């Protein structure tokens, strides 16, 4: 067993305790480093570059106990944890097979490969939680297909919409995130290039075609086979950063909407189990939404560091590669935690149709003024319709009377059926059809 003493996560409630926290722990990274080393020896054995039994010996030794804290302290000597790990693993293998640990590889080969393993393993947990989220949102969208609520633009009531369409839109973003993460996960490659990306050492050790070793190595790890060593061609990391940042933003959109709709004075939705306050017993804070929103705010800056590292110089970089490790792990953790919290948020979200309808009526019927402008133009003429609605709009507020009631008092409106024209529930356009269309996506 590897040393997997966890971090406390005292300042990280967004990801602490999540599956992603476990998948990105120091112990998990150490396990991935050891998996990468063992797979390299096994791959060389399959091609006759290591003697029979070497792969099994290294794999068995890699399953033993290694001290992550000691490795971290000794990593300062060479700038990465692979160097002291190779020394410890070689000593653990010993004897005949010790020299076949890390043979021909460079530290970046192992570190990059381990990072891809950690990413794949973490993304599996993210995808599972995104699946939970989209399923819960699909249920909400179907249940509230025709639940009318105010559509809001630039913070103000615009025209009526439905909560079903809003939930369907949230789900669409989650599915977009799922698709991007799936595509990136399936393409994350092993890394093997040797000292400067030429595979020269493997040729020196007897490989007639070192590219065959790259393929064998990728198969051992169940990672994609890279076209070229990517020591300073950081497309895999940039693609991963982009997919993760998008996922954080997609989940953040849901959280932001819920935070707005859950305000005391709006109260159209509520989290299933709100968080308490240290000072105010009456509060039930939307904590899941808050944590997801916080992750969405941090993710773009972390991704920016990873995109900045695309400028890595030469055949292996000083600094650019090293700058990736912490922000990439932070990004995996943030998105993993956000996905967990989003799933809990969606599964427990309480919808309040009566509050939505009450809010629709706050403008005394003016929320359907767009429809009235179009419909009454055909009856009264465009100029008269505009004049009438412009005059009545301020009166609805000043007198606190419904627009339909004021319209009914106008002489030229006696023959107009105002009941249908002024009902917000009858002016949701194609919201129902759009919701149905969105729910067809799997």
Structure, described:
This protein is mainly alpha-helical and about 450 residues long. The protein contains 18 helices and 4 strands. The strands form 2 sheets. A two-stranded antiparallel sheet has the order 1-2. The longest helix is centred in the first third of the chain and has 37 residues. The radius of gyration is 30 Å and the shape is elongated. It starts with 18 loop residues before the first helix and ends with a helix. The mean pLDDT is about 95.
Element-level helix/strand string: HHHHHHEEHHHHEHHEHHHHHH
The percent range for strand residues is under 5%
Helical content band = 55-70%
Average residue pLDDT: 94
Q: Please report the distance between the alpha carbons of the first and last residues.
A: 40 Å
Characteristics of this structure?
mainly alpha, 18 helices, two-stranded antiparallel ribbon, 442 residues, 4% strand
What's the layout of helices and strands?
Blueprint: H1 19-23, H2 26-46, H3 54-62, H4 68-74, H5 82-93, H6 107-143, E1 148-153, E2 156-162, H7 163-187, H8 200-204, H9 210-221, H10 235-261, E3 269-270, H11 287-308, H12 325-348, E4 350-351, H13 353-360, H14 369-380, H15 382-399, H16 403-408, H17 418-421, H18 431-439
Antiparallel strand pairs: 1-2, 3-4
Gist of the model:
This protein is mainly alpha-helical.
